[in-house]
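subagent[fold] <- orchestrator: predict structure for attached chain, return tokens only, no commentary.
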Amino acid sequence: MEIDYKKADYNWIKELMQYPRILEEGLGDFEDTSRISVPEDPIEKVIFQDKAKESIRKIAQNKGHILMVGRPGTGKSMLANMFNEVLDKSLGDYLRPKELIVAYPGKDKNHIRVAYETPDKIDNLLTKINEAIESAKNNTEQFNLSDQIKSVVKIKKALLWATCISAVAGLFFSPAFIFTGLAGIGAIFMFMQENNHKAQEKIQRESYRGRENSVKHLYDMLPEVLYDPRKDKELMSRISEPDSRNMKGGFRHDPYQSGHLHTPAHKRAYLGAHAKSPLIYIDELKTLIKGGYMSDLLEIMQNKKFILEGGKNTGSGAADRSENRLRAENIIVACCNHDTLEYLQREGDGAFLSRIEDKGEIIRMDSAVPENQKNIKQVAQYIKQEIICLEEEFKEAWGEVIKNEGYEGVRKRSEHIFGRSLPTDYKLQAREFSRGAVTEIIKELRCRSSDRKFSSILRPINGIIKTAELEAILDNSQLVEPVHVRNALGKHLSLEGALSKEIIAHKKDLKKYISAMTDSIGYVVGLAVINSQSGDQMYGQPLPIHCQINAGGADTVIAPGKIGDIAKAAVQNVRASIKKIFKKIDAPYIGYEMHVEYIQAHGGVEGDSASVAIDIALISDYIKQPVNQKYGATGSLTGDIVLAVGGVTEKIRSIMDPALGMEGACIPWQNKYDIEPLLINTEYEFITKDEVPGIRIYRIEKGKDPFDIYFCKTKYNAYKILMGLGREEVEARMAERSTKDLECMRKMRRHYIT
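subagent[fold] -> orchestrator:
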């Protein structure tokens, strides 16, 4: 009997069981995260991305451009913020603009002139001009009738003298009294006229009180400050959708077009990021490509200056532009995914990438990093940083309530939120993570990757940490314990995770029904995964497969349904592997029609990880040997060898729920390290079945509810676990079946001839 395993292989499996101890040693000596310190260096607060952090420091020294390429959640935005913080502390006082950008009227109504001036000079200039305009505005002559009043008073006085003189003369010459009467009447009339002028003067003065000269034309000529560094102290501009308006600036719509009250162009001008910000952070470069701004950006990066102009073909501001250029000495910090990078490599022969590399670097973010002592400690540091952030969020959201009402007020108000009573000593404070809770986060990072690596896609982990915190707060626990993290993992699912959960519930009933209605011949439980588009997480799920072999067919493989090219090729490989056995045992091959059915796989199947399961199901149907439906199988079959596949950890986790009724699984030997995270915070032991080594994990404490995982090098190892048959017995029964089929075909041929 051929033995696929050596003594060293069994030792390697036993070494896997040392992983929890090695992890504990890597974490160092701490009981909870309260003893973990956070680095003061902003860049070191970004974990895992060592190569990126080293590049960031070099670029900060050289003030070059950066393009960070990686999947969402790997820390691109955080590194950009840290880059901004480091530059601000080191060179911010030199990078930050010191001059105002001022717009003046141009050669005509559609042109402006732009100047860079010191704040003091412009402040003095604007003060003097405003004072002069204010003086001109208020320099209005007061309504005055003093000349007319003086003339009337003179005539009135003359008439009064004439009246007096004529009255005296009338004593001696009586006809003089006639003149006295006429002069008196004239004096009375002049008195009335004087009062009339004074009244008119008063009325006019009160009517024109507060009136000012129109000085709009003077204000229209006043320079406009477009940018004042004293008010805008941000070193970095964050642009989510780059276009000409937010990158270069432009001219606003004129709200006063009617009535000949047009706002001049320099009053309507505004600046974008190029003119104001030393650093420009483009969050997603794909939006820049879609908006068609790439050509403008390339030109500005090359020339370091640009003309301010209207951004529309028609309408107000379309014809406006600056006569001279604005400076644009920006450091570009951009982020993109790999699909955008491929486009940039093709577009314009990589012109944008060339600009970046000319004075900067293209940084590739790691999606996964090796598990070592340094990275293990970084996970603990990362959790501590999230605890600090959550505490700050609590203070921001509930600070006023705590200040005014204390934690008792927080408790009462929180009861309305949760709809139930909370403990009397309930406090809305972030809890530290226990050592066991930290290992649960490490376990999750390991499960989301493979090859003994941690996943670097941390954004979904943020939500898990915060959900676990809230679980601990609601339990009024002193620390976040492993149970809180496990509860958070069950609740904090992506769309694909929630869908996978529903599918597993359906597959549980489907599996029970199939087991009850069939003899398990030709049926096998394969293992598949669903990939999350948002967080790059994989969600495992059982994949029931049924296969049949019919003798005397067209010697083909039929795999109906929505399956991908790789899955079709895997089915053909299985057929070739079975034919190889016939050749090896010198059994007659008469031609077989093989049918492969992925039971209720409505979403389609892609990949070759089901090829071992298909082979087991076909051989089971061929030799009429039942398959143990309580074990799942995964692996890529090449000849007789079982090769590694992806997502093994998640596949195993998907069938470890006791309610599903599964008792174990067969996985490729090369995926043995993917089992390490499943050993965290559990009981386990080394097992063998015949020569096949494995690890038994107890799903319930105190050695209850075992789940066996076997490591298969060849498909015959999987036959032993799932069908209880060794290599010799399988080959013998295949030879026996082939001989019977050949004899049957000969009898049928003789029958038709006769």
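orchestrator: received. Logging for downstream: The chain has a mean pLDDT of 81. Residues 169 and 175 are 9 Å apart (CA to CA).
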